[in-house]
Each structure stands twice: as C-alpha cells, then as structure tokens.
Amino acid sequence: ELTIQEKVYVRIETKVPRTFLYFYELIRALSDFFSMAVGALCLPERVTVEGSFQPEVLKDGAVIYPKADVFFWNAYEGDKRAPHPMDMLFRFDDVKDHFTNMLSNWISKSTRLRPARMLYISSLYWPKAFVESKFLSLVQAVEAFHRQFMHDKYIEQENYDALVLPHLLAVVPKDLPSDFREAIKGRLRYL
Questions:
Q1: What residues have CB less than 8 Å from 26, skipping those under 6 apart?
Q2: Per-residue pLDDT tens digits for 2-20
Q3: Is the CB of residue 41 less than 8 Å from the CB of residue 27?
Q4: For residue 48, which phi and psi values (nearest 5 degrees)?
Q5: C-alpha torsion sign, points 95, 21, 40, 122
Q6: Are the beta carbons of 30 and 41 closer than 8 angstroms?
Q7: Is 181 helix (H, G, I), strand (E, B) or coil?
Q8: Strand, helix or coil for residue 111
Q9: Distance from the CA of 106 to the CA of which of 52, 97, 112, 163 falls in 20 to 30 A?
C-alpha cells in the first residue's frame, strides 16, 4: 500500500498590522475555497503568526513575542481519503491562467459569502448529520447567497430600517402575547 501525504504552506503578509481575527477569517475563507475546489475538506492544522517587532515586556512582566504557533483541532470525522481528480470542481491546470484573479475575487467577497459558505461546507462535510439537516443547510446556504448577491430588493436595507420598519413595528397590536408580538417584530426586520 502506498500512501502520499501532502502539506501545503501559504504565506499571508499585510502592509498594515492586523488582528488575529482578521487572519483567522482569511484562513477560513481560503480553507473553504480549497475545500470546494478539490471536493474534500481542507483544514489548517497549524498556523504560525509572526510580527515584525522585537519581543516586548509588559508592565506585569509578561513578554509578547513576535512569533507564535497556533494549532487547530479538527473535529471532522468523515472520509479523510485524498480526493480523486474526477471529484474536483477544478484542477489547478484548468484555472492556472486565472487562479490569482479567482482567489482575489473569492477573498474580496469572503465576508459577504461567509453565511452561505458555512452552511454549504457544513452540509457537505458533516457525515453524521441527518439528510434532512443537510438539505435544510443547503437551502439556507442558497437563501443566504441570494440575500447577499441578488439585488431584487424594493428598497435598500438602511432605508428600510430607518424609514419603513419603525412604522410597521408601531402598528403591531400591543395586546398580543409577548412571544407572538416578538415573533412578528423579528419577521418584519427581514422583509
């Protein structure tokens, strides 16, 4: 039996200092991109964070080092076999001339795509989920994508929140049970 294991290294640099959360979200976006591309869950195991400063000693004596390793725990229990090239959405050779542009577009839209990405990835790569749960996740992913990228709104959300929603909330009958009243208000926020 022959086993091949591949490690991929990605270096991310910024021109201005960023928080760890910024890099974490970027890593999640890249992970989702490669997971969809190859048809298998791609997760980081280890991330090395490196700053461009000298170790700093704080007032309480704690030391901030410019380099730290962050290890990720993988809760995925599904099929961990290497993806077959026929199962991949695309191979690098198919997109090599456009890869930089594809990845750049993906990253630039990653925040808007996040809800749809999370639902889609969880529906595909959580093997113990019931088929109904997977179906609902996929439908919610489509709805989340549609809400972010399809511009079939009658009014922009900011204008709706400022000009329309207060009037609708004001006419919800006050004598309704409070849980029913809150449910109506919740639905009105997302018309």
A1: 12, 107, 110
A2: 776 777 788 888 888 888 8
A3: no
A4: -105, 125
A5: negative
A6: no
A7: helix
A8: helix
A9: 52
Tokens of 81: 């076999």
The answer to whether 102 and 82 have CB atoms below 8 angstroms apart is: no
Global pTM reads 0.66
Whole-angstrom Cα distance, residue 109 to residue 106? Answer: 5
Q: Positive or negative CA dihedral for 26, 29, 31, 33?
A: negative
Q: In whole angstroms, give the CA distance from residue 141 to residue 20.
A: 27
In the numeric block, the tokens 């809760």 are attached to 75
Q: What's the length of the chain?
A: 191
Cβ pair 119, 113 in contact under 8 A: no
The CA distances from residue 27 to 11, 32, 36, 38, in Å, are 11, 9, 14, 16
Summarize pLDDT for 85-117 with one digit per residue, the tens.
788 888 888 999 999 999 999 999 999 999 999
Below-50 pLDDT ranges, the chain = none
- Label residues 76-88 b or e (16+ Cβ within 10 Å = b): eeeeeeebeeeee
